[in-house]
Amino acid sequence: MDRRHFLAALAAAAAPLAQAQNWPEQPIRWVVPYPPGGGTDVLARTVAEAMRPALGQSIVIENKPGASTNIGAQQVATARPDGYTIMSADNALLAYNEHLFSKLPFSPEKDFSYVGGISRFPLALVVHPDFPAKTLQEFLAYARANPGKVNYASPGNGSPHHLAMEMFKVRTRTFLTHIPYRGAAPAVADVMGGQVPCMFIDLAAGLPIIQSGKLRALAIGSAQRIASLPQLPTLAEAGVPNTEVFAFQGVLAPKSLPAPLVQRLNAELNKALASPAVVKRMQDFGMEALPGTPEQFRAMARAEARRWGEIIQQAGIKLD
């Protein structure tokens, strides 16, 4: 290699480090693939505000809902990998959609840089207080005695709540009828009103409702009991093993984001997760923080994609 080519190669190798040292020089766009006001949106805003002082730039939340998060994801997948575009990503993008859709305009595994995890929160099986079952075993006995006659609500086809119940049905060999809604709020409202008897609910929305007695929780989909509902058994304790069901969130960036920028974003994200404001918000939502490395977040997401792919295939669910 002659001197000119050597210097060019040296400059190219040094460019990402120089970029990271100067970054950020302008506001950062954080895409949330859901409407404003939901749990994902609120958490993203809380974490972004906690990251802002260390970064010295504002983080602007941009809501891009639609197509089971695919609209927002495609915008990020095709954005410049310069550290000024990141996004919230959850089960839908990282574990479900590659199995639910025949074709995606991007690969969840190959077309993003994984930055790190934000949170995970278990789903609980809840029933209307008048439902004739006070334990999970009583619920199963009733469902088996009335195959196909017990309806369950969800925020929509392919949602974590829908797929949690499909896994539950596979594990328990029960036949329940799905009633999809357009969002969590109307689904929860109809279960509270008694129009639909049951659903899996995430604790971000369900914890205060359960604690108030407006819905009865039968079991929690976590590996261990949770502090906010210590009397509530896990699905495994209640007799349904191998049925851990939870929603998770993390941060992605466009593919080929330079490693120094990934490392800086990951470091600031982990610091934010330990901040008092974020810790309190997660406690209010019944969430568990997911600090760690980009590699750990990627490994968890890919493991979830394999686990849920089997359930989606068994249930024959497609969204196109």
Automatic annotation (TrEMBL):
Signal peptide: 1-20
Domain of life: Bacteria
InterPro entries cross-referenced by the UniProt entry: BUG, Bug_dom1
CDD domains, alphabetized: PBP2_Bug27
Keywords linked to the UniProt accession: Signal
Protein family per UniProt: Belongs to the UPF0065 (bug) family.
Protein name per Swiss-Prot or TrEMBL: Tripartite tricarboxylate transporter substrate binding protein
Lineage: Bacteria, Pseudomonadati, Pseudomonadota, Betaproteobacteria, Burkholderiales
